[in-house]
Design brief:
Length: 322
């Protein structure tokens, strides 16, 4: 699998991450290990987890995903080959969901313990905390990097101006800056005014900021839970806008031209985007994961990428986005 360097950091990751929010919970341990093995055997190194995964499921209280990854790395003896990203910032049992210095220190310790490791490769602010001074949050992240517990920091679901403010502060203080941004992104475009609650979707602002300041853009919920191909997964109402039919038609046309599946075309389109993104692939079954990883082998022509990008969106020309 190709590799990507995260922003200005020295952290090198596989061209796709494996999304693990359901492993060790809805996905049982044996299947979770199997999925992680498939990802690693395909050359994948970048594993995306979070301290809260998957506290929203019945019988779960958070930490299930991290603990399963930790157990898998221990059993396989492959910690040094994997690049583990985890997050904090949402509340779950025993954690308020703040980005205070105390919580950053405490949650980092808990994540390290569950992951059976002494370092987190990429530590995300999972969402903004407007009630904690930025100086306190970024100072606490800097302390973890200095102590060797964290290699690089990144932002998820933060508005661009807050990321820019944080990075400017860190530059002034000589602290490590956010090197990547993880936002929601799929091929359907969010309807005007659509809300995903605390989740933020990729928009032109974040694209331009990442391009200008050399941050890596990482995309989650890329397949809209399978809505492109599955009758049992309706298109989420936030994406059911006036351009959805046209985008679906172009997606099908490009899939027919390339011989790839719709899901694979979406993954290829993201990887070849401007800026190129690191997609988070997920799947609860080996066949799903294999199909999605196959998307990394698909090479679209520039014309196909442009046709996909502009479908149902004639005003957005590539030149304008630059
Ligand atoms: N930073 C954040 O705030 C944030 C938020 C959300 C997610 N994430 C990350 O992104 C990861 C993935 O999120 P997501 O689950 O929303 O992503 P998704 O790609 O939109 O959905 C994954 C689900 O789609 C179905 N699927 C996947 N591949 C398929 C295929 N080839 N054919 C048919 N169905 C397929 C499976 O559903 P079934 O299992 O039901 O079959 C799978 O569990 C998470 O694990 C997490 O790491 C981050």
């Amino acid at each position: 699998m190709r590799t990507v360097k995260l922003g200005k950091s020295d952290v090198v990751v596989s061209a796709a991450a494996f999304g693990t929010d359901l492993i060790g919970s809805r996905i049982d341990q044996a299947t979770s290990f199997q999925l992680l093995d498939v990802f690693a055997e395909a050359g994948g190194t970048f594993v995306d987890t979070g301290n809260i995964y998957a506290c929203w499921l019945p019988g779960c209280s958070g930490g299930e995903s991290e603990s399963t990854i930790g157990a898998w790395m221990k059993e396989r003896g492959n910690r040094n080959r994997m690049v583990v990203a985890t997050k904090l910032g949402f509340d779950y049992p025993g954690c308020e969901g703040r980005l205070s210095a105390a919580e950053i220190e405490r949650e980092c310790e808990k994540s390290l313990r569950r992951l059976h490791t002494d370092r987190i490769d990429v530590y995300y602010a999972h969402r903004d905390d407007p009630n904690t001074p930025l100086e306190e949050t970024m100072g606490a992240f800097a302390a973890l990097v200095k102590a060797g517990n964290v290699r690089a920091i990144a932002a998820s679901n933060l508005r661009v101006w807050r990321i820019a403010e944080a990075n400017t502060l860190c530059q002034e203080r000589g602290w490590p800056q956010y090197v990547a941004v993880e936002q929601r992104h799929t091929y359907f475009r969010p309807r005007h005014g659509a809300s995903f609650g605390p989740q933020l979707a990729v928009n032109d602002d974040v694209r331009e900021y990442c391009r200008a300041r050399n941050l890596t853009l990482i995309a989650y919920s890329i397949l809209a839970q399978g809505a492109y191909t599955r009758g049992d997964r309706p298109v989420p109402e936030q994406y059911a806008g006036p351009d959805a039919d046209e985008r679906m038609e172009v997606l099908k046309a490009v899939a027919a031209e390339t011989g790839a599946t719709l899901n694979q075309v979406i993954i290829a389109w993201m990887r070849q985007g401007d800026p190129p993104m690191v997609p988070i692939v997920a799947g609860s079954r080996v066949e799903q994961l294999r199909e999605n990883l196959g998307g990394l082998e698909v090479a679209l022509s520039a014309e196909q990428v442009n046709r996909l990008t502009t479908a149902g969106n004639p005003d957005v020309k590539k030149a304008w986005l630059r």
